[in-house]
Amino acid sequence: MTDFRIPARRGKGAALAVAAALLVLSGCSSSSSGSGGSSASPSAAGATKITIKDFAFHPATLTVHPGAKVTVTNEDTTAHTVTADTGKLFDTGHVAPGKTTTFTAPGKAGTYAYMCTIHQFMTGTLKVS
Ligand SMILES: [Cu+2]
């Protein structure tokens, strides 16, 4: 039934061509999805965004202005939180897989450690200045 044999002995040239084609294909597919809409884009004054991926916060240290709105995107397949270590100055609550939420950074300058309350080995730092 399954006779999926790859003709590996046909020569290395063919195999290289296939590999190259795959590279081109993957390159195209990752860059062809952005169809520029006409929605208003927010200020480009630096990224105020935390991405959660592979049980880690990216970037590990984020610097924002006091009271900034910080976007949190969970790209993992399990829920996470962004929760300030001290006094829950900010706390996203559970962010489900694939979801995006926001929280407001503290209004006072300082360095705020945060973590995921579900996986407490996940830590990050929010710098407000
Ligand atoms: Cu987590």
* Ligands, ions, cofactors: copper (II) ion
- Could you name the CATH homologous superfamily of the domain at 49-128? Cupredoxins -  blue copper proteins
- Strand segment count: 8
Just name the CATH architecture of the domain at 49-128: Sandwich
Q: Helix proportion of residues, in percent?
A: 10-25%
| Large-scale geometry | globular
Number of helices: 1
Largest sheet: 4 strands, mixed
What's the CATH first level of the domain at 49-128? Mainly Beta
Which secondary-structure class do the elements indicate?
Answer: alpha/beta
Oligomer: single chain
Beta-strand residue percentage: 25-35%
Low-confidence stretches: 18-44
- Order of strands, main sheet, comes to 2-1-4-6
- For this structure, the CATH topology of the domain at 49-128 is Immunoglobulin-like
Distance between the termini: 65 Å
Mean pLDDT: 79
Order of helices and strands: HEEEEEEEE
Keywords:
binds copper (II) ion; four-stranded mixed beta sheet; globular; Immunoglobulin-like; 8 strands; alpha/beta; 129 residues; 1 helix
Provide an overview of this structure.
It is a single chain. This protein has one helix at residues 12-31; strands at 49-53, 56-58, 61-64, 69-74, 83-84, 100-104, 110-115, 123-128. It is an alpha/beta fold and 129 residues long. It has a domain at 49-128: Cupredoxins -  blue copper proteins (Immunoglobulin-like). The strands form two sheets. It has a four-stranded mixed sheet, with no helix packed on it. Strands 3-8-7-5 form a four-stranded mixed sheet, with no helix packed on it. The longest helix has 20 residues, at 12-31.
